[in-house]
Amino acid sequence: MAGHQKVLTPEHLDIVRRALERVRTQRRLPRRGAQAERLALKALDLFKAGYIREAALARALRQEA
């Protein structure tokens, strides 16, 4: 499957969104802006790398960003 993009379902996007909101709120980051965008991109990267549970994704996101 090398070279194929993983398809994100609405459920996957909800997991990413909730983890992202949790970390964003803890860091008191605005919903929009460069910091929020970087955090969102990192969240998607981590999800694609296998952090598919909300709590694990949020933990990894806090450590990475």
Tell me what the structure shows.
By secondary structure, the chain is mainly alpha-helical. 66% of the residues lie in helices and 0% in strands. It is built from 3 helices and no strands. The radius of gyration is 12 Å and the shape is globular.
Q: How large is the count of helical segments?
A: 3
Total E-strand runs = 0
Structural class: mainly alpha
Shape: globular
**Helix/strand order:** HHH
Taking all Cα atoms into account, the compactness measure Rg is 12 Å
| Termini Cα gap | 29 Å
- Strand percentage, roughly? under 5%
Q: How would a crystallographer describe the biggest sheet?
A: none
Which helices and strands, and how do they pair?
Layout: H1 10-26, H2 34-48, H3 54-64
Helix pairs in contact: 1-2, 1-3, 2-3
Short description:
With 65 residues, this protein is mostly helical. The protein has helices at 10-26, 34-48, 54-64.
Structure keywords:
single chain; mainly alpha; 3 helices; 65 residues; globular
